[in-house]
Amino acid sequence: MTQHNRPDSLGARRAGAAGSPDYPGKDLGFPEAGRGAVAGMARRVGALFIDWLLCTLVVSLAIRPPAADVGFWTLVLFAAQDYIFTALTGLTIGKQLLRIRVARLDGRTVGLGWGLVRTLLLLTVVPPLILDKDLRGLHDRAANTVVVRF
Length: 150
Hints:
mainly alpha; two-stranded antiparallel sheet; 7 helices; 7% strand
């Protein structure tokens, strides 16, 4: 059996749609790679980290609360920026830097209502950790969204 005929070879994975394995977003109609593909967890966690770090810097330098309150105010600012930016544009600063965005499955803007649902579930920490095969956490499923590359 040649390398390209083995079921676990790269050649077999790149075969036609009938022979290719599932990938995140396949059933939703998204491409396997490149622009419009479902974003991987490394980019998503990286964007979250960047957003949190920026919020911490703003709180520490602009608000200057007592040290014991920095975490609380960082959470408040993070929640506000995530909600507003995601609802209106699908982007946060971290997502923009890592070239990912939140998109509704129907192509519309996330919107204020679904943005609020998504952000509140994101803040509870557990829903984003429960992923389906399309790398959508419970917060994405509730808001009918997916995080894609752009």
